[in-house]
Specification:
By secondary structure, the chain is of the alpha+beta class. It contains twelve helices and ten strands. Strand 5 (209-218) and strand 6 (224-228) form a beta hairpin. Mean pLDDT is 92; it is low at 1-8.
Length: 308
């Protein structure tokens, strides 16, 4: 009887986790479930002590939509990580599935570690990483910010369009955690990394590349430059617009001004990137300003606000 009850519970765990992934991944998910230690319910909890946990998957969950398919993702679970040797038997896609599962683990260090291992950028990964945007661990938000590129932004925007209510709930949680834990360090919400990520998602347009402006400055040769986070513009010289790309410093730059001022060149670089390279470059509240006087900085910021 006891063995039957255990088998029934393990079967229920498998059913729950299968429902967290698209049906097209069923075979790979089953391979992952095969190595998970469902039979071990001795778990180290937040107090650092080992406890027996009867139900290794918390009953709360989140229903989301991916490409029109409904997925039910558990809020938290408590089973341990699989043995390293067993994990090595998985292929790359199966390892990504395993890492996504452990993004819902009760231990924040494990969630961060598994997030750092995810290299797959397919759309089905999105609900697992998006959930983390509404959590309280700052270091996890930093990893999400570091990993954020145009493809992930594109996926986030698609996900938001499919799940608008969940998006609002997650954004509200992010603000609540900022207010509770991080307001002293970041008195202004606009400077908090969670807010910056959500602002990127809000301004993102499907099909239009988008990147963050890391730095705006004037170099020793008196050229205006714009340093981007991820985008590279190696072929921008072909536009014949007098805008060039420095592949060592990773920045766009203008010639030394003559008839045009620095403000005109800033606008021109932004317009060329947008119209000729399909890339929208965004200032943020953490953009670095180098050798830019306050009047020019104010003029640039006000222009970007007006055209946003």
């Amino acid at each position: 009887m006891l063995n039957w009850l255990k088998g029934h519970k393990y079967s229920k765990y498998r059913e729950i986790l299968l429902n967290a992934f698209p049906r097209t991944l069923k075979k790979d998910v089953e391979s992952v479930l095969h190595i998970l230690p469902f039979e071990v319910n001795d778990v180290k909890l937040c107090d650092g002590k080992i406890h027996k946990v009867d139900n290794l998957i918390h009953p709360d969950n989140q229903v989301v939509k991916i490409n029109g398919e409904l997925l039910t993702i558990p809020y938290r679970f408590y089973f341990n990580e699989p043995e390293t040797e067993k994990e090595k038997t998985l292929n790359d896609q199966q390892k990504t599935i395993l890492n996504c599962i452990f993004l819902r683990h009760h231990n924040g260090y494990i969630r961060q570690n598994r997030l750092e291992r995810i290299e797959n950028s397919e759309y089905w990964v999105t609900p697992f990483t998006f959930q983390l945007l509404g959590e309280y661990i700052f270091e996890i938000l930093e990893v999400l910010d570091e990993q954020l590129d145009d493809q992930k932004l594109e996926h986030y925007k698609r996900f938001v369009n499919e799940n608008p209510k969940y998006y609002q709930q997650t954004e509200s949680r992010m603000i609540s955690y900022w207010n509770e834990y991080y307001r002293r360090k970041f008195p202004k919400l606009k400077n908090y990394v969670g807010r910056i990520i959500f602002d990127h998602i809000k301004t993102k347009k499907i099909g239009k590349r988008q990147d963050e402006i890391v730095e705006v400055g004037i170099d020793k040769d008196e050229r205006l430059f714009i340093r981007t986070k991820n985008e590279r513009f190696n072929l921008i010289y072909r536009t014949a617009t007098e805008i060039h790309w420095d592949n060592n410093g990773f920045f766009l730059y203008s010639p030394k001004p003559s008839e045009w001022g620095y403000y005109d060149w800033f606008r021109h670089i932004i317009d060329v990137a947008n119209k000729e390279c399909n890339s929208k470059l965004m200032l943020t509240h953490r953009t670095i300003w180098t050798n830019i006087d306050n009047n020019l900085k104010k003029q640039i910021i006000e222009n970007r606000k007006a055209t946003a």
